[in-house]
User: What shape does this take?
Amino acid sequence: CSSDLGISTNLTWQAVGISEFMATNQTTVLDVVGDPSGWIEIYNPTTNDVNLTGWSLTTNTNNLRQWVFPNVVLLDAGDANGSDNFLVVFASGKNRATNTAELHTNFRLPVNGGFLALVDNKTNIVSAFTNYPAQSADVAYGRDVINPNIAGYFPNATPGDANAIGGTNFSPAV
Assistant: This one.
């Protein structure tokens, strides 16, 4: 699958990627001081730990280094703790990038739709939502847990855990 930017994106769940995000978070998950912020979930489906040092998240196609990860390791999918292969990063604009604290980007997610990408330390886009649709309060958007080629809204957000797409309210983008 290739994006409208001519960038090849990984949609096979064979490598680390963005699995879910929420641009307008009001009550789903709060940061350590009780603030609601948008958030981005990174998923590692591989059998290897992945060091995200130097990787970045961006909403800007002209700045692939918009927010850079500190020394953070995303554990492998076989980890005994189960959900340690998911990482939630708040898209709050607070710009907190220490590996001992909750991570916050220096940007907020566009609510009316837009671009969101995970970029490796060599500036390759490894996962992207190139034209995601407008977002609603407390409704996540992301990829199917089994078939990452299917993207849609998640009425039951699962930050830090496997995406749940069952039920009548899951729908792909129109």
Notes: Confidence is low (pLDDT under 50) at residues 1-11. DSSP finds no helices and twelve strands in the chain. Residues 47 and 80 are 12 Å apart (CA to CA).
